[in-house]
Amino acid sequence: MKKQRKMNNYEEIEAKLGIVFKDKSLLENALTHRSYLNEHRELSLQNNERIEFLGDAVLELLISTYLFKTYPEKPEGELTNIRAAVVRTESLAEESRDLGLGEYLKMSKGEKESGGKDKDYLLANTFEAVLGAIYQDQGLEVCKEYIDRTLLRKVNHIVENNLFIDPKTQAQEIIQANFKVTPIYEVVKQEGPDHDKIFTVALKINNRKVAEGTGSSKQKAEEEAAKATVELLNKQGKSLN
């Protein structure tokens, strides 16, 4: 049987974070989802939304400062896009998974049963909330050290591989340069109820379907189709053969 995590035992998570909190209640606050308090109204706890707001601001400052100093040749627009790629939901969720933060996140039984401990947006929010707690407990320099050994590891990879350029822009630039046309996106399938639809979108070049993508919105499906197209064209030397 899997061992139940107890939030009054902080040593394990503090070891993963590399930080020992002076005020343990800040860490508990960062790891308390609002749904947990709906089931435990008798507890005098706060949910992590306010501290996440603070962590988001700290994160933006630290990433912006790092990029500003590290890439003096890059214009503001590119720096903005790189920062967005570094702090996007999937990226922050990946860091939370690496640290195992989801194991310690307090949430309602229903949220837990629906897979809440592994949902990207909840894990991303938790990463920011923990950063906010670190800032309140130990200040900006410790936050910087924490971000240096977690999130900043992926910056060079993002920049070197142009991953800060959104997939649709990448696909359009490659297609226009090689085929002198603009790609067309076409919804080929919609499945599921209105509140939980899954879209399948095809990307076409000169009326020829090159790749498909699926997602919970047309935009996400288009992005997935664009990603698949870029991978395919790069693999085939920008050729459709």
Quick tags:
single chain; 241 residues; mainly alpha; Ribonuclease iii, N-terminal Endonuclease Domain, Chain A; Double Stranded RNA Binding Domain; 2 domains; three-stranded antiparallel sheet; 12 helices; 3 strands; 10% strand; flat; disordered N terminus
Task: Please give a structural write-up.
The chain is mainly alpha-helical. It has two domains: 11-160, Ribonuclease III domain (Ribonuclease iii, N-terminal Endonuclease Domain, Chain A, Orthogonal Bundle), CATH 1.10.1520.10; 167-235, Double Stranded RNA Binding Domain (2-Layer Sandwich), CATH 3.30.160. 56% of the residues lie in helices and 10% in strands. It has twelve helices and three strands. A three-stranded antiparallel sheet has the order 1-2-3. A hairpin with a 2-residue loop joins strand 2 and strand 3 (208-215). Helix 4 (49-70) packs across helix 9, helix 6 (89-99) packs across helix 8 (120-138) and helix 8 (120-138) crosses helix 9. The protein is flat. 27% of the residues are buried. The model is unreliable at 1-6 (pLDDT under 50).
What's the total helix number? 12
Q: Give the biggest beta sheet.
A: 3 strands, antiparallel
Q: Helix share of residues?
A: 55-70%
- Give me the CATH fold name of the largest domain: Ribonuclease iii, N-terminal Endonuclease Domain, Chain A
Q: How many E strands? A: 3
Taking the alpha carbons of the first and last residues, their distance comes to: 53 Å
Shape: flat
Strand order of the largest sheet: 1-2-3
What number is the mean pLDDT? 89
Radius of gyration: 21 Å
